[in-house]
Design a protein that fits this description.
By secondary structure, chain A is of the alpha+beta class. Chain A contains three helices and eleven strands, in the order H-H-E-E-E-E-E-H-E-E-E-E-E-E. The longest helix of chain B has 24 residues. The radius of gyration of chain B is 20 Å and the shape is elongated. The mean pLDDT of chain B is 88. Classes of the chains: A alpha+beta, B alpha+beta. Chains A and B meet through helix 2 of A and helix 1 and helix 3 of B.
Chain lengths: 182, 152
């Protein structure tokens, strides 16, 4: 017969005590507790929005423009290929003309897939400044809210700018950036 | 809704449903039970991930949340024994000193054949009169304590 053999009497001398490693186990228990603490901290951080979609994950940039304001609410922290949105609120009571023009820079559209713009624009075109959407606005006395739904197509730091022109006034450009987790 | 809140809700809802299903339901998986578990996991996956969030981060957060809840509950059970009773239940005696406890058996949907099967597997016993105690454990398995042989 090939291979070495061990007499049963010799093999039976083995005890479960031979497999015990109390020092190793004590170290492992200590490491376990550290990992638990990290896990609980991760859950709390996720609840607060540190990894996107939470209390601290969004930022609002507000600019005074003409007699009103332009406000961009966007995620500071987001997740790769998960639904996000940019919310633009344009309050321009003194605007003349009836067109709201919003241009999303090509820097941003190359890093994110725009899924939907709500309300649907009356016209969309693509130019050197990026993707341009236009709406006819009947009443400037009320704020106009535009919601751009998108999914980050890249991870790391992504961003770009959004250019807003209310009526025939001057365009306002807001730069924004966000960190996208993989 | 936050991933963490969704994961916690699913965890507790599943826990309540599994407790209501009874100890024996998934303790020994039949082929159909295995399929049922697969269907449940598929259905739950949709609810956990919500609107098409298939990012690596979301997956890690979900796993960390579910395991954290499990660890937290095990710590609670250790510190507060009543929580263990509520979350895990208690063993149930099915055969007490040679007498079948019919009420417990019907409540837990266990029959004589189940007790005999466990007796055969665990102790190589053939008949019910060789069993002193049969206990349905929290995990859903049936423990058998044989009648002591006075001649042994």
């Amino acid at each position: 017969m090939s291979g070495s053999t061990v007499p049963i009497k010799q093999a039976s001398q083995k005890s479960f005590k031979d497999e015990l490693h109390p020092t190793f186990e004590r170290r492992k228990w200590a490491v376990d507790r550290v990992i638990w603490a990290l896990m609980f901290a991760t859950v709390v951080a996720a609840l607060l929005g540190v990894f996107g979609s939470g209390l601290f994950s969004r930022e609002t940039i507000e600019r005074a423009h003409g007699g009103g304001t332009i406000e961009l609410e966007h995620p500071r922290l987001a997740r790769f290929h998960s639904p996000e949105d940019l919310r633009l609120t344009v309050h321009a009571p003194d605007a003349t003309g009836d067109t709201l023009r919003v241009a999303l820079s090509s820097e941003f559209t190359s890093q994110a897939q725009v899924r939907r713009i709500n309300p649907e624009p009356d016209a969309v075109s693509v130019g050197p400044e990026g993707t341009v959407a236009e709406w006819q606005v009947r009443d400037w006395s009320q704020p106009v809210v535009v919601d751009v739904q998108y999914e980050p197509d890249d991870w790391g730091r992504i961003g770009g700018s959004i250019e807003v022109q209310a009526g025939e006034g001057e365009a306002e450009t807001i730069d924004f950036s966000e960190i996208v987790f993989p | 809704m936050s991933l963490v809140i969704r994961a916690a809700l699913i965890y507790f809802i599943l826990m309540v449903l599994m407790r209501a299903a009874g100890k024996r339901q998934f303790s020994e998986l039949t082929a159909f039970d295995a399929i049922l578990l697969l269907i449940i996991s598929e259905a739950v996956q949709q609810a956990l991930l919500g609107r098409d969030d298939f990012s690596l981060t979301a997956g890690i957060i979900l796993v960390v949340t579910l395991i954290s809840i499990d660890i937290a509950l095990s710590l609670v059970k250790q510190w507060w024994p009543k929580a263990d009773l509520v979350l895990e239940g208690a063993p149930v005696v099915l055969l007490d000193n040679g007498q079948l406890v019919k009420e417990h058996m019907s409540r837990e949907r266990v029959d004589e054949a189940d007790i005999l099967e466990s007796a055969r597997r665990a102790c190589g016993l053939e008949r019910l009169d060789q069993i002193r105690y049969a206990i349905l454990e929290k995990t859903g398995t049936i423990s058998i304590i044989p009648v002591q042989n006075p001649n042994a």
